[in-house]
C-alpha cells in the first residue's frame, strides 16, 4: 500500500522509510458522524421522497420513518460490534469475508463500491439543476449541466485527495448550512400548517398512526421509500483507520448518524408535506422541496432551498467518494483489486489513486447520462437499484455480526437478544424489503441488479485466479464466549 517501495543504498545503514499509511487519529467522532449523515444526502433524500412517501403512507410519514429507523439502529449496532473487533477500512468486506466466506466478503465489498457509485450518479445529476435554479437559469440545458457537474466533481475530488481533515471540515460547514436551511423551512411549515394558512393540508391524528389518513396508508410501500432515505450512514466505518479511538468511535458515530437522520427526516417531512394540497404536492414531486419553499416564502427563499439541495449533493458526493476510495484501498491491500488502488499518497495520507479513479468513473457516468437519452434510461434503471444494493450489504454485515459473536448468543439471555435475535430480525426486515422491491420492480431494474451482481462475480474470479489473492484462503474467525 505504498506509492513506491524504498530501497536502501548498498553498503549504507540507511533504514528504508515506512510505507505511507492513512492518517491515524485525524478526525473525531462528531466529524465522523457528520460524514455518515452527509452520505445519506438529507436534503436530496427528502426532496426525492417527500411526495412519494406522503402518498404511500397517507401522510403517516413520521411514524413510518421512525419505525424504519429501529432496524437501521440495530444494523448500525452490528457495525459497531464488528468495528470493535476489526477496525479496518475494508469494513464489511473484511467482516463478512473473515466470518462467513471470503467469496461473499468480496461480493460485499463490491456491493459497497457499486452502491456508492450509483448513488453518487443519482445525486450529481441533481446538482446542476439546483445550482441553475439559484440563479434563475434554464435548468434543462445539457452543456451547462455537464459543466457545473464536472467542475464540482473536480473540486470534490481535490478536497478528498487532500486529506481526511479538510474533507471533514468541509463536510461540517456544508452540513451546518444545509441543516439550518431545512430546519428553518420545517419550522415555517409547521407554522403554516398548524395555523391553517390558505392552501395548506390540515394535520389530523391519523398523521401519527401507521395506517395514515383513513387507514389508507400502505406501510410496506412507505417502508420501501424510508429504507432508501436512510441508506449511506455506514460511511462512518470506512474511515475507521483515520478516526480517534478507531475501535469505538466509528461504531458509535454510525448509531448517532442513524438516530439523527431518523428524527430529522420525520420532523422535516411531517412539517413540509402539508404545506400544499396532495394534488399540488404530487404534481410537483420532482421538485417538491423547491416548490414547497416557494409556496411558503416566495421565489427568493426557493433559491435558498435550491442551495440546500446543492450543498446536500456536494456533501453526499464527497462522502460517497471517501467510501468508494477507502473500500477500494481496503480490498486492494489484499490484492482482491489491483494493488495500485491500495497506494497511499505520502503527502496527503489518502488513497489518492483510488479516489481519482472513482471520481473519473463518476464523471464519465455523469457525462454519459446527460449526453445520451438512451444511456440515461439505462442509468435510471441502475439508479433505482441503489436502495437494494445498500440493503443487501447491510443484511450481509448483520449476518457477519451474528456469525462472529455466535458463541455468545447462547452464553446469556442479554446476548441472545442483542447479538442474535435483534440483528437477525433486522436482517429479515431488510430481506423482506428487498423481496417486496423486486416483486414490484420493472424488468429493466431487475436486470440492472443482476448485471451488477454478475459483474461482481466476474471480478471475484479475476481476484481469485488472476490476481491470486490470498484473501480467499483466510481462516474464518469467531469471538470467544467472554
Give an account of the 3D structure.
The protein has 19 helices and no strands. The chain is mostly helical and 482 residues long. It is globular, with a radius of gyration of 23 Å. The chain has a single domain (29-470), classed as Amino acid/polyamine transporter I (Up-down Bundle), CATH 1.20.1740.10.
Which key phrases capture this entry?
482 residues; single chain; mainly alpha; disordered N terminus; 19 helices; Amino acid/polyamine transporter I; 0% strand
Topology (elements, then pairings):
Layout: H1 29-40, H2 42-56, H3 61-85, H4 92-99, H5 102-134, H6 142-162, H7 164-194, H8 219-230, H9 235-238, H10 249-272, H11 278-283, H12 288-297, H13 299-332, H14 352-371, H15 373-383, H16 386-404, H17 406-409, H18 413-440, H19 443-465
Helix pairs in contact: 1-7, 1-10, 1-13, 2-8, 2-10, 2-13, 3-8, 3-10, 3-16, 3-18, 4-5, 4-16, 5-6, 5-13, 5-14, 5-15, 5-16, 5-19, 6-7, 6-13, 6-14, 7-10, 7-13, 8-18, 12-13, 13-14, 14-15, 16-18
Amino acid at each position: 500500500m505504498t506509492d513506491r517501495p524504498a530501497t536502501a543504498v548498498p553498503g549504507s545503514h540507511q533504514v528504508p522509510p515506512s510505507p505511507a499509511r492513512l492518517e491515524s487519529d485525524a478526525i473525531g467522532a462528531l466529524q465522523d458522524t457528520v460524514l455518515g449523515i452527509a452520505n445519506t444526502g438529507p436534503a436530496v433524500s427528502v426532496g426525492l421522497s417527500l411526495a412519494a412517501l406522503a402518498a404511500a403512507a397517507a401522510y403517516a410519514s413520521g411514524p413510518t420513518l421512525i419505525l424504519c429507523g429501529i432496524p437501521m439502529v440495530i444494523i448500525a449496532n452490528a457495525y459497531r460490534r464488528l468495528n470493535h473487533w476489526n477496525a479496518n477500512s475494508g469494513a464489511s468486506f473484511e467482516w463478512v469475508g473473515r466470518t462467513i466466506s471470503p467469496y461473499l466478503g468480496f461480493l460485499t465489498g463490491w456491493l459497497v463500491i457499486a452502491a456508492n457509485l450509483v448513488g453518487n450518479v443519482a445525486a450529481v445529476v441533481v446538482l446542476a439543476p439546483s445550482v441553475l435554479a439559484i440563479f434563475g437559469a434554464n435548468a434543462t440545458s445539457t452543456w451547462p449541466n455537464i459543466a457545473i457537474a464536472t467542475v464540482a466533481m473536480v473540486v470534490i475530488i481535490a478536497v478528498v485527495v487532500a486529506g481526511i481533515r479538510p474533507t471533514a471540515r468541509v463536510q461540517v460547514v456544508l452540513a451546518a448550512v444545509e441543516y439550518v436551511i431545512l430546519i428553518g423551512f420545517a419550522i415555517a411549515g409547521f407554522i403554516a400548517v398548524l395555523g391553517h394558512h390558505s392552501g395548506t393540508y390540515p394535520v389530523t391524528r391519523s398523521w401519527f398512526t401507521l395506517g395514515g389518513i383513513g387507514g389508507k396508508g400502505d406501510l410496506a410501500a412507505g417502508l420501501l421509500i424510508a429504507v432508501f432515505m436512510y441508506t449511506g450512514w455506514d460511511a462512518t466505518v470506512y474511515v475507521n483507520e483515520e478516526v480517534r479511538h478507531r475501535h469505538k468511535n466509528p461504531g458509535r458515530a454510525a448509531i448517532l448518524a442513524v438516530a439523527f437522520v431518523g428524527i430529522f427526516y420525520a420532523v422535516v417531512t411531517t412539517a413540509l408535506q402539508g404545506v400544499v394540497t396532495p394534488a399540488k404536492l404530487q404534481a410537483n414531486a420532482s421538485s417538491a422541496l423547491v416548490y414547497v419553499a416557494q409556496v411558503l416564502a416566495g421565489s427568493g427563499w426557493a433559491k435558498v432551498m435550491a442551495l440546500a439541495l446543492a450543498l446536500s449533493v456536494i456533501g453526499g458526493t464527497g462522502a460517497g467518494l471517501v467510501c468508494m476510495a477507502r473500500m477500494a484501498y481496503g480490498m486492494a491491500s489484499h490484492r482482491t483489486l489491483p494493488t495500485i488502488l491500495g497506494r497511499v499518497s505520502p503527502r496527503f495520507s489518502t488513497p489518492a489513486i483510488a479516489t481519482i479513479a472513482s471520481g473519473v468513473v463518476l464523471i464519465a457516468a455523469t457525462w454519459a447520462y446527460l449526453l445520451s437519452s438512451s444511456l440515461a434510461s439505462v442509468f435510471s434503471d441502475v439508479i433505482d437499484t441503489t436502495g437494494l444494493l445498500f440493503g443487501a450489504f447491510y443484511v450481509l454485515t448483520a449476518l457477519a455480526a451474528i456469525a462472529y459473536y455466535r458463541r455468545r448468543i447462547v452464553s446469556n439471555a442479554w446476548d441472545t437478544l442483542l447479538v442474535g435475535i435483534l440483528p437477525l430480525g433486522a436482517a429479515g426486515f431488510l430481506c423482506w424489503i428487498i423481496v417486496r422491491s423486486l416483486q414490484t420492480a420493472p424488468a429493466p431494474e431487475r436486470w440492472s441488479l443482476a448485471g451488477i451482481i454478475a459483474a461482481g462475480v466476474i471480478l471475484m474470479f479475476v481476484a481469485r485466479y488472476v490476481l491470486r489473492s490470498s484473501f480467499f484462503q483466510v481462516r474464518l474467525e469467531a469471538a470467544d464466549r467472554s
